[in-house]
C-alpha cells in the first residue's frame, strides 16, 4: 500500500465522516481546484477530512471564499516527514476534527482566519528529533465553542488573537505561546502544558475564569511597560476580577522585563488541591510584582503553596502580595522581637534560594512570613532562625516562638551518623533540617531526646531538605513525642536525589497532619513508624506537579486510632504493617500500593477489624471511599492487592459530565491481579449535571479477568438526584460497556422522574 493510500485510510478511519482528501498540488495552490486533490472529483467541504503529506511539494494553499473542513492533518503518527505548508486566504470553517500537526521536517502554518463550527482542537505533535513549530497566524474565532490548544512535543505559536464567547483550554506537555491581545470571553484553563502570554501584546484580559491544573503552567512573560496600565488590569495580561483556581499547578510565573518594573494583578486565587507553585522573578532586569485579590486554601483537600522570587533581602524586589492581606490564612509565631521569632505562614514554603531563584523548579528551602508591603518573604537561613552551631540542639527562648534550623554543616559535618539531642521537653515554632554539605552523603541525622521528652512545634511546620550540591538527606526524628498542639502538622520532604525521613516519634495533635514528599523510585519518602493514636484529624498526603508523594506507615496505629480521615492528593500510600492499618475514610486522587517486599499489606477503611488476610483492602461499616472532591472528579487506584472487599460502609461517586466522573481503579498484573467482592456496602451517586438516558460511566475498573462477586445494597439500580429530577441508573456488574473489558462496574442512566412523569430508554 502506498503512503498516500495509507494516510487516506488512517484519516478516514479516524473521522468516520464524509470524504478524505489528500493534497497533491498538481494544478497549483488553489484549495477549490479539484485537480489539487485525491480524489480529484471535488474539493473538501465541511464534513470532510484533509491530509497533507510528503507526496506533494510544500508551499501556499490558498482559500478563496469561505471554505470548510471537518479536520486537517499535516502527516500522521507514522509519516511525519511533511513539507512546509501555509494555508492562507479567506476564512476556514473548522469542524470537530480539528487541525493536527505531526511534521518533524518543516514548520506548518495556518495564515487563514479560523472559525469553529463545533468544539474543536488545534494540536501539535512534532516530537524530537526534528521538532518544528505550528504557527497560527490568521486568528481564531471560537464562535461560542470550546477550543483546545494541544502541544505535545514542541511549540504552538498563536500569533493572532483568539476571539469569541467560548472557552480555551491548553493541554499537552509542551508550550503554547499566545502572542496577541486575545478577546475571547469564556474560561481559560491550562492542564499539563505550558501557556505563555508572550511578547508585547500577549494577554487574556476578557476571560471569565482561570484554572491551572494537572501540572499546568502559566507564564506571564517579559511584560515590562509594553502594555499600559488601564486602571483595571495593571499591564493587562490577565483580569484582576475573575476566579483563579490552582490545583496541582506546576507554576504560575510572572517575569519582569524590558527594563521596567512590572505589576500584574490577578483575581481571587483558590488553592484547590495538591502542591501549587507561584513564582515571580526579574527576568531581564526589572522587578515583578504579582498582586492577588485574595488567597484561600481548600479546607477539605488541605493543599500546599510554594512561592518563589528573587526577594531574599539581598536587593531584589520581586514579590507576591495579597491585596487584602492574609485574612484567610492565620500566621503563627512570635512578634519578631529578636529576629528569630517571626510568625510564619502555615502550609506555605519558599523555593527561593539565597542568591537566585531556580526558575520553574520548586526546590523547597525554607518557610515564609508575610509582610503587608513585601508580601511573602522567605525566612533567611542565617538571619531568621536559631541555627545550631554544633552537634547539640540550639538553646531556644522559653516562649516557644523560635524558628529553629539544623544545618548539616554544623550538626552533621562528615558522612557519618550523628545524633542531635534535645535536652528536655521543648517548644519551638518551626523546624528546618537542611543538608547544606558541599558533597553527597548517605548517613542519617538522628534527632533524639531523653525518655518521655516532647518536642512541640507550635506552627506545625517541619521541613527536611537538601541543597543542589548535597542532593540527599537521611533524617530520623526519634524524640519520644512530636506534638503539633492545635496546629495542622506539616511534614515536608524536599526534593532529593536520595533520602528519607523516618518519623519514629509518636505524633500528637488535634488538627491532623499533612505530608508532602518528592518520590523518585521510592526515594524521598516519609516513614511513619510509631503509635500515633494521639493524633486526631484529617491526614493528607500531598503530591503534585512532578510525581507522587510517598508515605509508608509501618505501625498498626501509624495513621491514628482508626477515626482519622485519609485524603490522597496525588499521593502514594504504601501500607507496610502486618496488622490492619485503619482509617475512617479514603478520598481524593492517588494510589494505595502493595509493595512486593512489604512485610504486611493490609488496610481497613472503617471498622476497626484485624485479621490474617494479607494483601487485602477492606471497606467496613462506617467507612467511606470517595474519589476526588465534591466539585472535582478523582481517581483512586488500589494496586497489587489481590483482594478488595466492600463488606460495609459507603462507596460515594460524583458524576459531573460524561467524561468527568469519579473512578475507583483496581490495578495489578500477573499474580497480583485483584478480586473484588461486594457484600452489604452501599453505593451513593451524586450528579453534577443532567445526564441523558443511555449515558454510561465506567466507575469501578478491575484489572485482569477475575469476575466481580456480589452486589451493592441497592442491588441493580441506584437513584441519584439532579435538581428536582430523580435519575435511576442501572448498576451493571461485570460489564463491557463504556470501553470496559467484562469484569468492571458501569452505571447506565435508565430513566428519570420529572414531576411524576417517568422517562425511560426506548
Walk me through the topology.
Layout: H1 3-15, E1 20-23, E2 37-38, E3 49-52, E4 59-63, E5 67-74, E6 85-89, E7 92-101, E8 108-110, E9 114-116, E10 120-124, E11 134-136, E12 140-141, E13 147-151, E14 156-158, E15 162-163, E16 168-172, E17 175-178, E18 188-191, E19 194-197, E20 210-213, E21 217-220, E22 244-247, E23 251-255, E24 262-273, E25 275-281, E26 288-297, E27 304-308, E28 319-322, E29 332-335, E30 342-344, E31 348-350, E32 366-371, E33 375-378, E34 386-387, E35 403-407, H2 408-411, E36 418-421, E37 426-435, E38 445-448, E39 454-466, E40 472-477, E41 481-483, E42 489-493, E43 498-503, E44 506-509, E45 513-516, E46 525-528, E47 534-535, E48 539-542, E49 549-553, E50 565-573, E51 581-583, E52 585-593, E53 602-605, E54 616-619, E55 624-627, E56 635-639, E57 643-646, E58 650-657, E59 660-661, E60 663-667, E61 675-679, E62 682-687, E63 696-702, E64 709-711, E65 717-722, E66 725-735, E67 744-754, E68 757-760
Parallel strand pairs: 1-3, 3-5, 4-6, 5-7, 6-8, 7-9, 7-10, 8-11, 9-12, 10-13, 11-14, 12-15, 13-16, 14-17, 16-18, 17-19, 18-20, 19-21, 20-22, 21-23, 22-24, 23-25, 24-26, 25-27, 26-28, 27-31, 34-35, 35-37, 36-38, 37-39, 38-40, 39-41, 39-42, 40-43, 41-44, 42-45, 43-46, 44-47, 45-48, 46-49, ...
Antiparallel strand pairs: 1-2, 29-30, 31-32, 32-33, 58-59, 63-67, 65-66, 66-67, 67-68
Amino acid at each position: 500500500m502506498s503512503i498516500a493510500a495509507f494516510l487516506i485510510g488512517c484519516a478516514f478511519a479516524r473521522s468516520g465522516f464524509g470524504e478524505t482528501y489528500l493534497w497533491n498540488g498538481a494544478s497549483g495552490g488553489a484549495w477549490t481546484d479539484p485537480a489539487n486533490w485525491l480524489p480529484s472529483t471535488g474539493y473538501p467541504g465541511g464534513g470532510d477530512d484533509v491530509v497533507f503529506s510528503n507526496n506533494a511539494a510544500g508551499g501556499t494553499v490558498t482559500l478563496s471564499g469561505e471554505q470548510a473542513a471537518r479536520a486537517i492533518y499535516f502527516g500522521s503518527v507514522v509519516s511525519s516527514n511533511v513539507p512546509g505548508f501555509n494555508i492562507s486566504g479567506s476564512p476556514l470553517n473548522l469542524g470537530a476534527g480539528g487541525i493536527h500537526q505531526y511534521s518533524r521536517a518543516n514548520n506548518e502554518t495556518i495564515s487563514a482566519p479560523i472559525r469553529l463550527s463545533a468544539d474543536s482542537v488545534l494540536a501539535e505533535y512534532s516530537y524530537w528529533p526534528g521538532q518544528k513549530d505550528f504557527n497560527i497566524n490568521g486568528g481564531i474565532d471560537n464562535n461560542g465553542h470550546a477550543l483546545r490548544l494541544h502541544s505535545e512535543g514542541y511549540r504552538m505559536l498563536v500569533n493572532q488573537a483568539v476571539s469569541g464567547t467560548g472557552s480555551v483550554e491548553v493541554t499537552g506537555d509542551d508550550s503554547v505561546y499566545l502572542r496577541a491581545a486575545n478577546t475571547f470571553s469564556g474560561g481559560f484553563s491550562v492542564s499539563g502544558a505550558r501557556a505563555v502570554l508572550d511578547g508585547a501584546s500577549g494577554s487574556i484580559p476578557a476571560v471569565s475564569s482561570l484554572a491551572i491544573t494537572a501540572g499546568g503552567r502559566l507564564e506571564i512573560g517579559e511584560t515590562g511597560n509594553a502594555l499600559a496600565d488601564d486602571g483595571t488590569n495593571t499591564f493587562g495580561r490577565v483580569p484582576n476580577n475573575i476566579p483563579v483556581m490552582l490545583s496541582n499547578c506546576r507554576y504560575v510565573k510572572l517575569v519582569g522585563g524590558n527594563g521596567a518594573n512590572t505589576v500584574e494583578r490577578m483575581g481571587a486565587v483558590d488553592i484547590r488541591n495538591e502542591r501549587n507553585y507561584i513564582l515571580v522573578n526579574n527576568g531581564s532586569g526589572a522587578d515583578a510584582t504579582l498582586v492577588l485579590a485574595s488567597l484561600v486554601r481548600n479546607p477539605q483537600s488541605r493543599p500546599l503553596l510554594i512561592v518563589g522570587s528573587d526577594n531574599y533581602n539581598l536587593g531584589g524586589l520581586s514579590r507576591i502580595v495579597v491585596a487584602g492581606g492574609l485574612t484567610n490564612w492565620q500566621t503563627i509565631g512570635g512578634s519578631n522581637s529578636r529576629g528569630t521569632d517571626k510568625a510564619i505562614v502555615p502550609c506555605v514554603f519558599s523555593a527561593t534560594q539565597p542568591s537566585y531563584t531556580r526558575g520553574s523548579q520548586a526546590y523547597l528551602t525554607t518557610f515564609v512570613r508575610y509582610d503587608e508591603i513585601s508580601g511573602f518573604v522567605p525566612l533567611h537561613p542565617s538571619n531568621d532562625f536559631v541555627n545550631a552551631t554544633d552537634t547539640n540542639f540550639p538553646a531556644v527562648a522559653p516562649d516557644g516562638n523560635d524558628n529553629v534550623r539544623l544545618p548539616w554543616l554544623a550538626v552533621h559535618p562528615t558522612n557519618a551518623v550523628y545524633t542531635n539531642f534535645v535536652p528536655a521537653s521543648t517548644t519551638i515554632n518551626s523546624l528546618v533540617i537542611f543538608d547544606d554539605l558541599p558533597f553527597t552523603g548517605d548517613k542519617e541525622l538522628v534527632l533524639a531526646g531523653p525518655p518521655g521528652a516532647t518536642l512541640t512545634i507550635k506552627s506545625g511546620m517541619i521541613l527536611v531538605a537538601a541543597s543542589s550540591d548535597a542532593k540527599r538527606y537521611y533524617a530520623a526524628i526519634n524524640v519520644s513525642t512530636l506534638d503539633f498542639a492545635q496546629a495542622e502538622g506539616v511534614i515536608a520532604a524536599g526534593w532529593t536525589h536520595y533520602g528519607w525521613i523516618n518519623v519514629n516519634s509518636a505524633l500528637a495533635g488535634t488538627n491532623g497532619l499533612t505530608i508532602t514528599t518528592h518520590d523518585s523510585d521510592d526515594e524521598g519518602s516519609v516513614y511513619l513508624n510509631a503509635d500515633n493514636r494521639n493524633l486526631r484529624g484529617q491526614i493528607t498526603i500531598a503530591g503534585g506537579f512532578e510525581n507522587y508523594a510517598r508515605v509508608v506507615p509501618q505501625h498498626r496505629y501509624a495513621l491514628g486510632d482508626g477515626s482519622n480521615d485519609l485524603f490522597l492528593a496525588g499521593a502514594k500510600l504504601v501500607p507496610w504493617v502486618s496488622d490492619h492499618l485503619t482509617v475512617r475514610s479514603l478520598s481524593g486522587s492517588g494510589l494505595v500500593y502493595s509493595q512486593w517486599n512489604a512485610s504486611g499489606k493490609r488496610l481497613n477503611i472503617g471498622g476497626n477489624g484485624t485479621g490474617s488476610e494479607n494483601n487485602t483492602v477492606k471497606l467496613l461499616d462506617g467507612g467511606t471511599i470517595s474519589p476526588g472532591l465534591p466539585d472535582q472528579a478523582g481517581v483512586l487506584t488500589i494496586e497489587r492487592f489481590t483482594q478488595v472487599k466492600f463488606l460495609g460502609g459507603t462507596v460515594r461517586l460524583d458524576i459531573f459530565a460524561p467524561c468527568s466522573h469519579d473512578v475507583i481503579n483496581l490495578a495489578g498484573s500477573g499474580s497480583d491481579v485483584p478480586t473484588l467482592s461486594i457484600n452489604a456496602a452501599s453505593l451513593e451517586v451524586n450528579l453534577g449535571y443532567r445526564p441523558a438516558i443511555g449515558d454510561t460511566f465506567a466507575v469501578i475498573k478491575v484489572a485482569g479477568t477475575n469476575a466481580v462477586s456480589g452486589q451493592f445494597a441497592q442491588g441493580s439500580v441506584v437513584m441519584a438526584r439532579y435538581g428536582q429530577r430523580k435519575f435511576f441508573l442501572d448498576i451493571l456488574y461485570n460489564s463491557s460497556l463504556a470501553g470496559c473489558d467484562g469484569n468492571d462496574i458501569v452505571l447506565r442512566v435508565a430513566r428519570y422522574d420529572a414531576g411524576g412523569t417517568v422517562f425511560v430508554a426506548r
